[in-house]
Amino acid sequence: MANITDVARVAGVSISTVSYALSGKRPIADATKTRIAQAVTELGYRPNAGARMLAGSRTNIFALTAPMHEDTHPPALMSFVLSVVTAARSYDYDVLLLTEGEATTGLRRVVSSSLVDGIIMLDVTVEDERIDVIRELGLPTTLIGIPHDTEGLTCVDLDFEGAARLAVSRLVALGHTSIGLMGHAEALYERGSNYAPRFRDAFLAAGSDAGIQTAFHTTVATRPGVEESLDGLRAQLPGMTALVLNCNENIHGILLEVLREREVAVPEALSIVSACSSFSTDHFLPPMDVIPLPSQESGRRAVELAIQQIAGFADPHVELIAPVYHRKSSTAPPAATVAA
Amino acid sequence: MANITDVARVAGVSISTVSYALSGKRPIADATKTRIAQAVTELGYRPNAGARMLAGSRTNIFALTAPMHEDTHPPALMSFVLSVVTAARSYDYDVLLLTEGEATTGLRRVVSSSLVDGIIMLDVTVEDERIDVIRELGLPTTLIGIPHDTEGLTCVDLDFEGAARLAVSRLVALGHTSIGLMGHAEALYERGSNYAPRFRDAFLAAGSDAGIQTAFHTTVATRPGVEESLDGLRAQLPGMTALVLNCNENIHGILLEVLREREVAVPEALSIVSACSSFSTDHFLPPMDVIPLPSQESGRRAVELAIQQIAGFADPHVELIAPVYHRKSSTAPPAATVAA
DNA sequence: CTGAAAGCGCTTACAG
DNA sequence: CTGAAAGCGCTTACAG
């Protein structure tokens, strides 16, 4: 494989000129630039990664730490992984994948061997064991997700509270005054998750602010679990005309099946909004209104913030991504209003 | 960060001795080894990855190319990715993730910059654009999946034909003589997939060998699609008592729902086997007999074969992983037999 | 069993 | 605008 000396010889310049021409770190005469470009093409030259890492101060590699928890939704994780890789490539960065087995060990290893310039953390839990390591290592890092203590950390996430308010306000605008929230499994509120309780609390607060009735129920992702959650909400809100789902994907399909059997028409008798979902809600019958979990944007911002830290200008902060409401066919004014 | 010179100084030896002690490439006196080990611990020394890559002949990094097709099942892809990463780590290899946007470009890039020692390819299609690049690059590579032309390639995959034969033989052993195969979408048989037609053909051949009746139908992963497939199979096999599923995950749930509504009891009136599934079939009602897609084993073998190629001893070949049948509760002798 | 030294292929002050 | 050279931190013949 051709090296920089070959390129310099063919172009008739010194290797430092080749290096500078390629990096753009100092002005090079146009004629020289052209000759170098030709030599590069002719030889199919590509700088040696190891030499670059050793001589330079960059490796152009990010570590992506993506553990799987019990409640990790693999397609969601996958879509975050892909968006991080894609975003990283647009900055000429490659991505090294670290998994659960090596959560903290792997981070220490790749950092202390100077393999990576920065770290992107997925699937952050409230008390994540990786966070102490991050603080200790001091390498540019972006978390996708928000732990309890964000001191000194750079974090990106959907604005879950904003998403809850958005869901409520859209339903209120349609005329709904009694809205239930079908939540995740109870365990998620007691441990690990930051977004689940954040969403729930903002939902209840938004309802109270709007002067409407709300109720919340956790949901086990089985058919009996969904029925129990639905019945529990109805018990609290006999006049419930709308449902916000902030829950497991499987619950969506089960819920629609239950409603069909009970002959509860969606959206005529019950409006439904799926909030913070990583999957498409288009294939449901009816296609479901959704406030998506923005994996593309999260990945992109995470990478951008890491790049800024590497460049040296970036203060640690939490960045929330604004929620977006996608109108499909699962919401309508409440039946009473229609009748009126 | 401490470097090899620091370690040598603290241990009172030369840097070459440190290097050899760490690599084990030449015998070192026990006493010396101990002093070096102590120095390494004391200084928290970890060899610089870039220097290693430059000086040595290895980077200890694999490229993992994992594109997403329309029919890619994300959880399955994720489980293969994780198994490759885990297996790679057991050989002290890290994994660089390449995605669709960079299928061939990315491979050329990481290889020509000497960033990786080998390549693992996931989600291989019959006429995969990456294969020509692989042949051209000549770097140790293992494909998980089997393309049309395997000349000169190292491939690992489940023995799909064996899996089809296994499914049939287990059902025949229970007494079934009329078995339907609910397949993937038609597109998968016309294009791209190698495993779908391989499974279908072996299924039909196994049925014929066993002297029983079989039928095959493609399946669209919607409720009407599943009903059409089921009805199509029944039309061909009025006495059908067993069904083999080699299809999309979603079809499983829909099928069980359809059967429930039609009051076809599983397994009493119809036995079902899920073949080559990457997902758990335990949560279905009843838990479904399954021949799993062995992502763990595929990933491990793929890595092992790549490691062997890097070490220089490995002839290109196709390696098939033996199918395993997991008995759950969705099969039984056919009703007629029970009655008899 | 161990050491001194060349060399891997770059980047980047230093110099002009 | 360009070049000669030091140096990054290892590995591995070469030598003893």
From TrEMBL, chains A, B:
CDD domains reported in the protein's UniProt record: HTH_LacI
Keywords from UniProt, A to Z, are:
DNA-binding, Transcription, Transcription regulation
Family annotation (InterPro entries): HTH_LacI, LacI/GalR-like_sensor, Lambda_DNA-bd_dom_sf, Peripla_BP_I
Enumerate the SMART domains for this protein.
Answer: HTH_LACI (SM00354)
- What PROSITE patterns does the record point to? HTH_LACI_1, HTH_LACI_2
Pfam assignment, any one: LacI
Note whether Ligase occurs among the keywords.
no
| Gene Ontology molecular function: any one | DNA-binding transcription factor activity
Domain HTH lacI-type intervals: 2-56
Query: Which superkingdom is the protein from?
Result: Bacteria
Q: Please state what the protein is called.
A: LacI family transcriptional regulator
Q: What is the lineage of its organism?
A: Bacteria, Bacillati, Actinomycetota, Actinomycetes, Micrococcales
